Automatic annotation (TrEMBL):
Pfam families: 5_3_exonuc, 5_3_exonuc_N. GO terms for molecular function: 5'-3' exonuclease activity; 5'-flap endonuclease activity; DNA binding. Keywords: DNA-binding, Hydrolase, Nuclease. One of its GO terms (biological process) is DNA replication, Okazaki fragment processing. It comes from the Bacteria. This is 5'-3' exonuclease. InterPro entries: 5-3_exonucl_a-hlix_arch_N (IPR020046), 5-3_exonuclease (IPR002421), 5-3_exonuclease_C_sf (IPR036279), DNA_polI_H3TH (IPR020045), FEN (IPR038969), HhH2 (IPR008918), PIN-like_dom_sf (IPR029060). 5'-3' exonuclease acting preferentially on double-stranded DNA. Residues 18-292 form the 5'-3' exonuclease domain. CDD domains: H3TH_53EXO, PIN_53EXO.
């Protein structure tokens, strides 16, 4: 059985490719994980001497710089949710309804993160009516078609559905404790088809149908009542897709058949909610995502305000990383 491959090894394995690298970052995923990596500590999170919360900015920047060191990208874009209803909420008003509210100190930290990313001249993208996942899915297709190998940095398994070896689209998946480690890349692994198969028991192309069958509690996607992950994997390994499962319903016996019959409408709705959109109308020129350096006079005051002395001491090295 194959093992999930560490990030630094995969960076070496792909070093012979002629395609430039485009890193897409799941902004809210990395921001929230940065927050919870530090905010639940004994001291209640990272703060400056004046009380400015910095857990999000510190964790995000630390992870970003280490990934850049490993991957040597030529282009980067960061996608964020807008926090407004999307087409999925219009289809199901209970979508993500059970998620807890945003912590109060997360909000100013996220605002400072946007300012920090702007100072680094990194492209930030959002799309009204869509989620960051949809922006990432669309950008992955555009960047691949433009000749890039695409690597999506996220802690969300939903994005495994975007993995496509033929298009050189993979996922840099960070574990829940990755940001607490001395070196983030120790907790980041690059996922292709084999790694998804090992972790979930299915292929990336089956992730949408997997969620259609067993649902996703974190997003309040119902799935088929009574069908768990183990049964979903068995069905997909036998029949290949949700469509073929329902086309072969007469072959499926007992309680599973009855559950599938009763839950067909929920399966179809869940599939709609789980599928990442690949054609979001984005007004974006990929040239704007190329790394082009930054203005030290703009970045330095921000780092000083956040009391990021370790980053301030490496300003010249940072300039080299960012082009």
């Amino acid at each position: 059985m194959s093992q999930t491959t560490p990030l630094n090894q995969l960076a070496s394995d792909f070093s012979n490719t002629t395609r430039p690298t485009f890193i897409l970052i799941d902004g809210h995923s990395l921001a929230f994980r940065s927050y919870f990596a530090f905010a639940r500590g004994r001291d209640g999170g990272l703060r400056t001497k004046t009380g400015i919360p910095t857990s999000v900015c510190f964790g995000f920047l630390k992870c970003l710089l280490e990934v850049m060191t490993e991957q040597q990208p030529q282009a980067i874009a960061v996608a964020f949710d807008l926090g407004l209803p999307t087409f999925r909420h219009e289809a199901d008003d209970t979508y993500k309804a059970d998620r807890p509210g945003t912590p109060e100190d997360f909000v100013p930290d996220l605002k400072n993160l946007h300012e920090l990313l702007d100072a680094f001249n990194l492209k930030i993208l959002t799309a009204p009516g869509y989620e960051a996942d949809d922006v990432l899915g669309t950008l992955a297709q555009k960047a691949s078609a433009a000749g890039y190998q695409v690597k999506i940095l996220t802690g969300d398994r939903d994005l495994f559905q975007l993995i496509d070896p033929k298009k050189e689209i993979s996922v840099l998946y960070f574990s829940p404790d990755a940001l607490k480690r001395a070196t983030n890349t120790n907790g980041i692994s690059e996922f292709g088809e084999a790694e998804v198969k090992e972790k979930l028991g299915i292929l990336p192309s089956q992730v949408i149908d997997f969620k259609a069958l067993c649902g996703d509690k974190s997003d309040n996607i119902p799935g088929v009542k009574g069908i768990g992950e183990k049964t979903a994997v068995q069905l997909l390994n036998t029949y290949g897709s949700l469509e073929q499962i329902y086309a072969s319903l007469s072959e499926i016996k007992g309680a599973t058949q009855k559950k599938l019959e009763a839950g067909k409408e929920d399966a179809e709705k869940s599939r709609y909610l789980a599928a990442i959109v690949l054609d979001v109308p984005l007004d974006i020129d990929l040239e704007d995502c190329k790394l082009k350096g930054f203005d030290t006079s703009v970045l330095t005051p921000i780092l000083e305000n956040l009391e990021f002395k370790s980053f301030l001491g490496k300003i010249n090295q940072l300039q080299q990383k960012f082009g």
